[in-house]
Amino acid sequence: MDFDNLINGLDRATLDGITRGSIYALVALGYTMVYGVMKLINFAHSEVFMVGTWTVLGVYTVLGATSSSGTGMVIGATLLALIAAMLASAGTALAVERIAYRPLRKKGAPALIFLITGIGCSMVLVEVFGQVLKYFFGPPFGRVLVNVPAVLETKTVFTIPGVDLAISNTRILIIVGAIVMMVALDTFVNKSRLGRGVRAVAQDPDTASLMGVNQERVIMLVFVLGGAMAGVAALLFTIQYDSTKFDIGFIIGLKAFTAAVLGGIGNLRGALVGGLFLGIVEVYASAIWDSSWTNVYAFVVLVVVLMFRPTGILGESLGKARA
Amino acid sequence: MSEQRMTQDMAVELKDTSDHELIEMHTSGEVGETLLEVDHVTLRFGGVVALNDVNFEIRRGEILGLIGPNGAGKTTCFNAMTGVYTPTEGKIRFKGKEIAGTKPHRINHLGIARTFQNIRLFPEMSAMENVMVGCDARHKTSVVGVLFRLYRVRPSEEELPDSGIRRSLAKVFGISRHTLEERAGRRRSMELLRFVGIADRAHELARNLPYGYQRRLEIARALATEPELICLDEPAAGFNPAEKEDLMGLIRRIRDLGHTVLVIEHDMKLVLGVTDRIVVLEFGSKIAEGTPDEVARNPKVIAAYLGEPDDAA
């Protein structure tokens, strides 16, 4: 146990935790929105995120963007990667909905079946990147860690005086980007017409249909929005960690799901709270004990929190998440 | 609820919109023509016959009562009419089109809305928002249109914003149709809340409203979808006599707006007092149909529903 290590590096650890937590939170939104509307855990969501990271790599490769590119190229490539990753992830989420969930819903399958088809979809997507694409195109596809060029070079923008904590441009982008996306989504759900439809279906699907709300359209919208958020998370992840892998979705997805449950699944603001909480706890615990046990700390915290607050920290549903 | 939203709504409230123009129904059909036709409908669940060759019609502009003792098949009939059940035999036609197998939200778009015997509001939304969900059903802008505000409309003088820059922008680029629809929806919702008499608590969460308010909010929400036919499932359940009296007035005013009304009700006084015609069901079969006077005098009805007549002994 090394509390001195944490206390000496508290500022740095907090910053790391918030960065990590922002990414968890963005991915967690996808789990929480789908759960809020359909009472379903979309286990293929982790791979929606994974597809996003590969899309970022793809855009950089096609444009030939590297860490030594000019400013115009850096901004252009990053923006294009953002849009492409959002589209690819939203598209993947929508495809999963169409292939794995909709046909079952039409036939009135029991809830458990959806979990299995979701896991099945997840495995197929993992193997597509780990095996199938490698077979056709060779590297970089395959079962190895792949480097994503650090197009946006990390530079210190300013230093917080007193604690001497350097804040880099990438940190600002990740934290601000994640918060902006979450505020936008929250406003959308709570203030807009489409968001009203989403909340109506979350609160009472049958009544919402009888009042003229097209339930299928709301479900599609929820998958697209959740997917787009995972796409944003994918770009931010590659900026922070400069890499991806065919099974990168597994651990990030699991952590994001944990964050969603911690915050209160079905609750948009819960995803933010849960994500940041989990990120900070992981980094703090790693500073105190051994960092190779990070995942253990995360799940111990989950179990402890749920013992005292079984519905999560904020513990509300999507329908209730309002101003 | 944000500050800004509050003030917007309050501005709408302050504006005198108590004319009914906003909420009147404009239909092309003629009063008295057949609106909904229940054509020899039989509905079986396994061996149980829930409806047996039931046959009646609802005419445009009338208030029709559907009555019968408990278990007579009223709610089953109602569910068949709103597309929840498909008849085993026979057809249900709305404006000449068969509605069996149509999805619930499509049936709503065709022009049928309902309220529920056991209140089913969106509990975590304000009264206003509940009604706006209903209004949204009629809006035309698509998902893509809403997100990117592509469909612009040249605004009229009174639709232009007051402030300088936004006013100039709106003059050049127009206002998105979505914005106008949203604004119109807010105005209509407030007017509907006023119409059913609960506008004073428009911004409270539905679950916090008193029982009578919740019942009337359900009616406002159903009216918001601009239904040609509105079906009220036991709207007076749990009401005291004074509230029932109010409700009768409200049902008549709903008809006067241009809606056709179907009322399912236990309370004989209310049904006899407010309806133009009554259909009586017993054990899944229609046993009588006619004006309130005719039905009240019908010996079969008296035996089945009102108990044995006094002079029978």
From TrEMBL, chain A:
Record membrane topology: Multi-pass membrane protein
Highest taxon of the lineage: Bacteria
One Pfam family, short name: BPD_transp_2
Keywords for this protein: Amino-acid transport, Cell inner membrane, Cell membrane, Membrane, Transmembrane, Transmembrane helix, Transport
UniProt xrefs under InterPro entries: ABC_transp_permease, BCAA_transport_permease
Protein location: Cell membrane
TM ranges: 23-41, 48-67, 73-96, 108-130, 172-189, 218-240, 295-315
Family stated for the protein in its record: Belongs to the binding-protein-dependent transport system permease family. LivHM subfamily.
Protein name per its UniProtKB record: Branched-chain amino acid ABC transporter permease
